[in-house]
Design brief:
By secondary structure, this protein is an alpha/beta fold. The protein has a domain of about 120 residues: Alpha-Beta Barrel (TIM Barrel), CATH 3.20.20.140. Helices cover about 35% and strands about 15% of the residues. It has a six-stranded parallel β-sheet with strand order 6-7-8-9-10-11. Strands 3-4-5 form a three-stranded parallel β-sheet, with helices on one face. Helix 1 packs across helix 2 and helix 4 packs across helix 5.
């Protein structure tokens, strides 16, 4: 059985249970991000939200806040201890606009060494280890530094075996990021690409699924992008084309306005209590 690294240590993958594969509990984007709704920096409010997840049967949550996104492994560990939820922390980077200056200054190999240490030793001087590697692109372009970071993530994956997760801006540039991983001969079933329900182009999504990756939808309840009827229809298409085992669903509710703990909604309960029942009805 494969081991999965949580903030409390390694567990068997058979112990994961009901899982959200992309959420945020604690995040402080850098100052150049003027939209501070993206900041989740209240331990108590985030703990409340994780308790809500637990109350509807949630057992594992992948926390996707990265090196450049104000992650807090100590807070995650405390939340996991209080709730009993398996929380998985992330190493890697979001996208170029958030990168610290040292990403440009260090070599690809040095960046990989930093992430390998997060996984094998611990994050930011703690013994809390990361269980996911994250990279990403920008809108309709992969910046040269994002290419550099993605190569570093590939090196990190080959050294550690830890799964890869890819940020896409509005669902764009997924193939271009996958092409970099293919250069390193990384099996596509070790990779998940997120935010793909921000680009509900059937031909595009089927072409990605054909490569063997995991397709992540993480927008249920976010009507400002698409109504859930369109997500349901596209998920049905992916299922009908034989890709049901490559679909992952989460909420990416990384805004205070999305979380009940911060006074917003629909909250971590939504997928389990509303979206999944709707999928089953269709």
């Amino acid at each position: 059985m494969r081991k999965v690294t949580t903030v409390l240590g390694d567990i068997d993958s058979s112990s994961l249970g009901f899982t959200y594969v992309h959420e945020h509990l604690y995040a402080v984007p850098p100052a150049n991000q003027k939209d501070r709704d993206l900041e989740l920096s209240s331990y108590d409010n985030s703990l409340y939200e994780l308790q809500q997840f637990k109350s509807v049967g949630g057992e594992t949550l992948v926390e996707a806040s990265t090196i450049d996104y104000g992650r807090n492994p100590v807070a995650l560990k405390k939340m996991a201890e209080v709730t009993g939820v398996n929380v998985i922390a992330t190493t890697g980077f979001n996208k170029n606009m958030y990168y610290p200056q040292w990403v440009a200054e260090r070599t690809t190999e040095e960046i990989a060494e930093y992430m390998i240490r997060d996984i094998e030793v611990g994050i930011d001087g703690t013994s809390i280890r990361a269980g996911q590697i994250k990279t990403g692109g920008s809108y309709n372009v992969v910046h040269p530094l994002e290419i550099k970071v993605t190569h570093a993530c590939a090196i990190t994956h080959k050294k550690t075996g830890v799964p890869l997760w890819c940020h896409t801006e509005a669902g764009t540039m997924a193939h271009e990021i996958l092409d970099i991983f293919e250069e390193h001969e990384i099996p596509m079933n070790h990779i998940c690409v997120g935010h793909l329900d921000r680009n509900l182009d059937e031909e595009y999504l089927l072409s990605l699924a054909q490569r063997g990756i995991f397709i992540q939808f993480d927008g249920p309840g976010k009507v400002k992008y698409y109504p859930d009827s369109m997500r349901v229809a596209m998920l049905k298409s992916l299922k009908d084309h034989g890709y049901i085992k490559q679909i992952l669903i989460s909420g990416d509710m990384g805004r205070a306005s999305y979380l009940k703990g911060y006074g917003g909604g629909p909250g971590f309960e939504f997928i389990k209590t509303k979206f999944i029942p709707r999928l089953l009805r269709n």
